Prior knowledge:
By secondary structure, the chain is mostly helical. It has one domain (5-321). Helix content is 73%, strand content 2%. A two-stranded antiparallel ribbon has the order 1-2. Strand 1 (183-186) and strand 2 (189-192) form a beta hairpin. Mean pLDDT is 76; it is low at 327-357 and 369-379.
Amino acid sequence: xxxxxxxxxxxxxxxxxxxxxxxxxxxxxxxxxxxxxxxxxxxxxxxxxxxxxxxxxxxxxxxxxxxxxxxxxxxxxxxxxxxxxxxxxxxxxxxxxxxxxxxxxxxxxxxxxxxxxxxxxxxxxxxxxxxxxxxxxxxxxxxxxxxxxxxxxxxxxxxxxxxxxxxxxxxxxxxxxxxxxxxxxxxxxxxxxxxxxxxxxxxxxxxxxxxxxxxxxxxxxxxxxxxxxxxxxxxxxxxxxxxxxxxxxxxxxxxxxxxxxxxxxxxxxxxxxxxxxxxxxxxxxxxxxxxxxxxxxxxxxxxxxxxxxxxxxxxxxxxxxxxxxxxxxxxxxxxxxxxxxxxxxxxxxxxxxxxxxxxxxxxxxxxxxxxxxxxxxxx
Length: 379
């Protein structure tokens, strides 16, 4: 896939312009986006990605368009999983709602920065060493096993890393927020606000997720242009998605399991590709392994869509059942409590009737007063 320099310049320029516009708006007016505002932004960014993919189809063919869509869906899903961790971080540090989108925007910018570095390093490594695919594939399989062992998404899965613990312990910090500023001066001393710790937490999380996402996208396409654009489009609109979905993110309990299946599939695909292009002397005498199949991109795209669809359906079904169980328990408890406080006359009537009473009968029963207990023996 040949991409002219001016196409790179235009693409990067347009994407940076969109990002700069977002930063300018957020910087002037920190607020919590409304549902309508968030839905409109997400629709715009998703439509932009689809139009871009169709443009790739028109100018470069269906093969590269399939690679873009497969990469975009995979990166978007990984970004949503990343968003779940962001949700936990915001709750842990009690970030005010009106400041959360500023923190999210900084997190997304850091994610773009780290992924850009890994994209460049990955492209250079692939061009020089074909055996890198073995490493990428093994790393993705390892990551998939780790995600599968975690099971359902849970707040308890998140643990502060060493960088966050060091920052909280060593930096002179205050518990009070100073808007979106990272520092505040108190009693002549410069103190770090909780927002600075939040930014550190988001940045280190972005770095760890970049280690997973870049090998995954290179398992679907080796075109740096598609890798870059798929990552950028996957990160666009995440800030609005955070506020639009809210607690719904917590209902995607099987997202990690679904992603583990996808990453394992891509890892196997990378290993098969490495075997097909093998040049390592201690494997098959340094010759290509011809029997190793190359999985078509359409098969990969279909597998990703089906897996993520099943994951979403099962997650929502599990969450719905979990939410209905407490309601049933509460109903049963209230019924037992009502039975305990019912008068003997009402209980006897209920047992005799075996069903619901009409309003007139219920009114008569309510007016019945129990006879006062008197002592049969006088002292």
